[in-house]
Amino acid sequence: MEIRVATFNVSMEAENYVPRGTHVSGEEMFAHLATGEHPQIGNIAEIIQRVRPDILLLNEFDYHPDAQKGIQAFVKHYLNQPQSGAEAIDYPYFYIAPVNTGVDSGHDLDGDGVASGSGGDAFGFGLYPGQYGMALLSRFPILKDDVRTFQRFLWKDMPDNLMTTVMDDQGKPWFSEQAQQVLRLSSKSHWDVPIDVGGKRVHILASHPTPPVFDGPENRNGKRNHDEIRFWVDYLSSDNKAAYIYDDKGTKGGFKGERFVILGDLNASQTEGDAFKQPIVNLLTHPEVHGSFVPRSEGGALHSPQNPLGAMHTAAWRMRPDYVLPSQHGWKIKEGGVFWPTQSDTLYRLIKDRNASSDHRLVWLDLAMAE
User: Fold this and answer.
1) Quick one: average pLDDT of 156-175?
2) Which residue of 151, 178, 311, 359 lies most exposed, with the fewest beta carbons within 10 A?
3) Backbone angles phi, psi at 113, to 5 degrees
4) Per its record, what are the GO molecular function terms (predicted)?
5) Distance from C-alpha of 300 to C-alpha of 347, rounded to nearest angstrom
6) What is the 3-state secondary structure (H, E, C) of the chain?
């Protein structure tokens, strides 16, 4: 059996749908989802219809507890409708869950002297709860009763974490003792979502670590990105290394399964960008991860003609932050790519600039299930 698995940072968050500097309530995107008429969302849907993944993670898709206003509206009003000649596509199964963005921590986390409750003082940066959320779409049944989420896992509970090394310019801890007791590791969430694919369980390991920028010399975001990626390295490792991990239901330990696919915008590259390189290197070279296959595109290569790594890029800002990483066992990689049409391609209109769709590209792999 062969399936196509993909990840796509769609930039479907409220700030993307109002003029720059305008106050956002968090409802702006959902209003557009109800109409089925927004051209940028239509382009995002068309990209998905063109690539036609069977399982798809959406990063930066605002979370709404009422799925009918959020992910189901996107499926019904956009994906189920042909976009500019592309064939409609349906996803009868989805998974959403709360994220840490915009959730008040009760502490001053950004160091401005005020515990404002949102933005840099939220558990994950966000102007309202649910901003930059995640959603998983599937053409196969999602085993929701067996999902593990790690939204509330505390950063302090990761052994040898880098939170304790975040210092101000006086050499004092950036985060107060009280803040260190409640600060969560995940800037959004980490999910382990099992899916029934032809009678076999496939675990989708989804996340969206914080960008390792937008901070200062203390590098609090860079160090958090380091540990958010390291979480998956530990989760897939031996029982002893993963013993510290607990999920939101209190179940302890690491990965318990066979086949998996790691999906998401990890905001890190082993060769470029500001992130610590070791965690993503450790993930790509993990004995349980097939990290040697790199999806490529001609469009990415032409976007950065002087950069030999351009074909690997998955974002317009010239880096590879987005990953589809299958397990070493249980799969054979058949093909893969990055949806990045060249300027001579009629589909270039879908990615020509930031307002056409997203500043990220959809990344996909075709995987054949092996015994």
Assistant:
1) 97
2) 178
3) 85, 0
4) endonuclease activity
5) 14
6) CEEEEEEEEEEECHHHHCCCCCCCCCCHHHHHHHHCCCHHHHHHHHHHHHHCCCEEEEEEECCCCCCCCCHHHHHHHHHCCCCCCCCCCCCCEEECCCCCECCECCCCCCCCCCCCCCECCECECECCCCCCCEEEEECCCECHHHCEECCCCEHHHCCCCCHHHCECCCCCECCCHHHHHHCECCCCCEEEEEEEECCEEEEEEEECCCCCCCCCCCCHHHHHHHHHHHHHHHHCCCHHHHCCCECCCCCECCCCCCEEEEEEECCCCCCCCCCCHHHHHHHHCCCCECCCCCCCCHHHHHHCCCCCCHHHCCECCCECCEEEEEECCCEEEEEEEECCCCCCCHHHHHCCCCCCCCCECCEEEEEEECC
- Which residues sit opposite 191 in a β-bridge? 149, 206
Reduce the secondary structure of 289-318 to three states and give it as a string.
ECCCCCCCCHHHHHHCCCCCCHHHCCECCC
Q: How far, in Å, CA of 205 to CA of 49, rounded?
A: 23
**Quick one: pLDDT band at residue 19, thresholds 50, 70, 90?**
confident
What is the rounded (10 degree) CA torsion for 243, 104, 145, 142? -110
CATH among 3.40.640.10, 3.60.10.10, 3.10.340.11, 3.90.226.10 for 2-369:
3.60.10.10
Count the Cβ atoms, other than its own, within 10 Å of residue 355. 12
Listed residue (87, 78, 326) closest to 205, CA to CA:
326
Is residue 153 within 8 A of residue 183, CB to CB? The reply is no
271, pLDDT greater than 90: yes
Query: 206 with 5: CB under 8 angstroms?
Result: no
Mean pLDDT (the chain, rounded): 97
pLDDT of residue 31: 96
